[in-house]
Amino acid sequence: MAKRAGIQSGGAAIKGFRGLAAWVVVVSVVFAPAAGAADRDGVLAKEGFWTVGAGVGRNADKCLATVPVKGGGLFALMASQGRITFGIRPKDRLRPGREGVLETEAYAYDFQPSFGKDGSDLYFDGYMSKNAVAAIRLAKAIRVSVDHRVVQAVAVENTGLEQALDAVIDCSNGKRGWWGKGADAAQASDGGRRDDEHSGGSGSAFFISADGVAVTAAHVVKGCGKLDSPRWGAIKVLAADPRADLAILKAPAGSGQFVPLRARGPRLGENMAAAGYPLGELLGAGLKITTGVVSGLSGPQGDRGLFQLSAPIQPGNSGGPVIDSDGALIGVVAAKLDELKVVDATGIFPQNINFAVPVSILQSFLDENGVAYKTAAATGVAGATTAMPGYTFAVVCTR
Predict the structure, then answer these.
(1) Residue 359: inside a domain, yes or no?
(2) What is the bridge-based pairing of β-strands 73-80 and 354-358?
(3) pTM
(4) Are 276 and 392 in contact (CB under 8 A)?
(5) Could you report the per-residue pLDDT of 258-311, keeping only the tens digit for each?
(6) For residue 347, what are the domain limits?
(7) CATH code assigned at 208
(8) Which band of pLDDT confidence, cut at 50, 70 and 90, is reported for residue 336?
């Protein structure tokens, strides 16, 4: 019986960027035959099966090892700063799904799959556990399934897998070797500037249409000279309203998944869930989903432009979606109460007092800007929290 690992999901947004999920780029670039090679032609492993190399341009801070699959397609191991993830390009177009499993003879690793916009690629938008990487190292064959459908199976015994894995890890740590140069974080997608030359921050956003129109908080994009998503690339700000703390975004492409807006606002006491990318590497890679209840229908000093929720919220959650128990949007994460200021003023340490902009204000903002959206009834919307990874993504502001 294979040992199963817990589900891990999502990429991450990191203040200063160029860290945890920076390898998640346009998948067609990552899987291109020349991707990852110092000379753009690839470097064959000594065993003659794996191609290993450092990225170029936007991929300069990550490394890639690929092996062809019998019958067509590729299996890839991707690394950044020694941490490993994987992706596949099967021979045939993929049908998207929600539950992914990577299996070896002795181990099964559950993951939340992400898909390329044209359905040709599948990848894990996060980093694998040490146990999962150890299992891959010893594998004779690797199989990837989505919703119980096998989408790729590759025999890796005697292909030099272990050496390729060691090489891609060393490469991602900046070492040179038979694969050529190592990863160079200083030459990553910011055009050559180092992390400490960036100022700005990160937040969360979510799609409200299938064609890449998204929403976030206005304070996330305020003063941005450049707005990027580790997953979707450069993001345009179409409109922002600082008073409502809302902004409309346009990504180069969409995931095909989006959240419908509920026709009525939050109800006191109802269950809710919030999604986002809080605190970067402190909480590890991946989308974080927290749950709670709508604990108040107004913000500080009776502000009706906000409502209160009990779900834990951290820096980086701003701009993320708040949904009801059926999966319909009821708000946009805006802020959390500053506990230290409250302690200084009252001597009391408050807990889980966080705020979101209600969906009714978002609808008015979208209407004013001529942006179409889908509404949903208060009940009966399919998906709930399991759909949130498909439409929620990180954004990074460079000022």
Answers:
(1) yes
(2) unpaired
(3) 0.51
(4) yes
(5) 999 998 889 999 999 999 988 654 444 578 899 999 999 988 767 788 999 998
(6) 200-398
(7) 2.40.10.120
(8) low
Share of the chain above pLDDT 70, in %: 75
d(CA 206, CA 13): 14
Give the total number of structural domains in the chain: 2
Query: Do 177 and 221 share a structural domain?
Result: no
Give the span between the Cα atoms of 22 and 38, in whole angstroms: 18
Q: For the sheet containing 107-111, what is the strand order?
A: 3-8, 107-111, 100-103, 141-146, 149-155
Contact indicator for 324, 378 with CB cutoff of 8 Å: yes
Residues facing 3 on adjacent strands: 107
